[in-house]
Design brief:
Arc Repressor Mutant, subunit A, 13 helices, transcription cis-regulatory region binding, HTH_TetR
């Protein structure tokens, strides 16, 4: 390569760096579509200090995806929008996530409460309360609610997203809940005729219903009222099944 060509690339590279780190330009870039970095600049750029470039790209894509959802909701969420805001190519996104649903799954998993259901908890009532309140508290975050509702919407149209949602989110947590109920049954905390599957549906079905139809609040008061009704079935002296038999 000729010397004047190298000088041209290096000069362009310096201008690019000045613009990239200018606060005003960074702010503007979040509000408008961005072009990918020219190939000659990308080739000349060497990795900087801090996180590896691959991790920086990964994080930039996730940040951009969250921002697109915040600004435009699920209806305006697309890989093109995310790529533009993250200043990467769509190929860079698809190398990491095979679909829009896979990207949404990762955003969702990042926001899950740190602790899942504790299968070895000694008190079923206390553990259900702890986990349900933690879930409701997490849903107070509007951004996370948007991610979750977007993921559910995408799963209605894309079978691969539906499978990811079942395999990575729904079934692992459901299995933990079932084991918790079985353990409680084994130590005599609940009776043998309790339908574990229905109990889990009773606990979490109302939350999903309120999340999807947005007709009522999802808050701690709602969680306590919901738990009170479920506890009547789990621990009440006269449960629905026995009452029906007496009639």
């Amino acid at each position: 390569m000729q010397q004047h060509d190298l000088n041209s690339i290096n000069g362009t590279h310096r201008i690019y760096n000045l613009l990239r780190y200018d606060p005003y330009v960074k702010c503007q870039n979040r509000l408008m579509k961005q072009k990918d970095i020219p190939n000659d600049i990308a080739a000349a750029e060497s990795p900087g200090r801090g996180r590896p470039r691959n991790q920086q790209t990964h994080d930039a894509i996730l940040d951009a995806a969250r921002e697109v959802l915040r600004l435009h909701g699920y209806a305006g969420f697309s890989m093109e929008q995310v790529a533009a805001l993250a200043a990467v190519s769509k190929t860079s996104i698809y190398r990491r996530w095979s679909s829009k649903g896979a990207l949404l799954i990762e955003l969702y998993m990042e926001g899950l409460p740190d602790e899942a259901i504790s299968e070895s908890a000694k008190s079923l009532k206390a553990e259900l309360r702890r986990y349900l309140l933690a879930t409701v508290e997490r849903l107070q975050d509007r951004e996370w609610r948007t991610i979750l509702s977007s993921l559910v919407a995408e799963s209605q149209y894309d079978e691969s997203t539906a499978a990811l949602l079942r395999d990575k989110v729904v079934m692992p947590r459901r299995e933990s809940g079932l084991r918790l109920l079985r353990n409680a049954q084994a130590r005599g905390e609940i009776e043998a005729d309790i339908d574990h599957e229905v109990i889990l549906d009773m606990l979490f079905g109302p939350i999903w219903y309120r999340l999807l139809f947005v007709h009522a609040r999802i808050d701690a008061d709602f969680a306590e009222r919901l738990l009170a009704q479920v506890n009547l079935v789990l621990f009440g002296k006269e449960r629905v099944g026995k009452t029906a038999k007496k009639r």
